[in-house]
């Protein structure tokens, strides 16, 4: 297995809090340790650096506690950046901040025509885009994704509100392999996944409930929540090297390693 060096975008959780509830993980009445959230995020960032990846940072904006979840800030493939449109008004102001960053970084910009929550719901798997819908990104957004990026788009229907973004229910391990929770998808989408990825790794509900599938893979190393022990063992059995990180504070807002990480694909050679 060969690791691919990645260029990643992250946002420090300087203003992280759980002030509202827009997914089943969020409880504004539960205590949150903001300092610990920053410490855990720093561990994740250092893990990427230790693996040889490049990490860039977008400046956090006061009043946007979920901006740490940079994966929702856009979709970047082959030097093109699709900006986002959030479903919930609490996150709406993140969209122009990320768009400005992409534009300043020199990406070819495209604006969304429908609700589209970026790489939270759009995952490149080999020569296909897997695109989630059901809770956040609108199904109508999938057609625009195909037109912009030129990859066939496969719609994935999510059915469990705990796994409200595709990246909470499925992770791309390499160009041929994914891991996913079957129960998070409609029967039709499960059938499509079986057809596309007959050798996929199936996660247990227990590991999904600690956001174990909200993982980041470079083709060899898989960074995932430390609590997802069964999934980590299955991945090691397949030959992947797993690195567990503790993001328990950020999980209180429904986020894990992948939520905090946006892949910046500069060109076709860096798929």
Strand content: 15-25%
Provide the spatial order of strands within the biggest beta sheet: 2-1-15
- Give me the count of strands: 15
Uncertain regions spanning at least 5 consecutive residues = none
Give the averaged pLDDT, no decimals: 97
User: How much is the radius of gyration in Å?
Assistant: 17 Å
Based on secondary structure, the structural category is: alpha/beta
Distance between the termini: 15 Å
Q: How would you spell out the order of helices and strands?
A: EHEEEHEEEHEEEHEHEEHEHE
Number of helices: 7
State the shape: globular
Sheet with most strands: 3 strands, mixed
- Helical fraction equals 10-25%
Description:
- This protein is an alpha/beta fold and 271 residues long.
- It has helices at residues 34-50, 94-104, 141-149, 187-196, 205-208, 229-237, 248-251; strands at residues 7-10, 54-57, 75-77, 80-82, 108-110, 122-125, 128-133, 153-157, 170-172, 178-180, 201-202, 216-217, 221-225, 241-245, 262-263.
- The strands form 5 sheets. A 3-stranded mixed β-sheet has the order 2-1-15, with helices on one face. The chain has a 3-stranded mixed β-sheet with strand order 3-4-5, with helices on both faces. A 3-stranded mixed β-sheet has the order 6-7-8.
- A hairpin with a 2-residue loop joins strand 3 (75-77) and strand 4 (80-82).
- The protein starts with 6 loop residues before the first strand and ends in an 8-residue tail after the last strand.
- The model has no long low-confidence stretch (mean pLDDT 97).
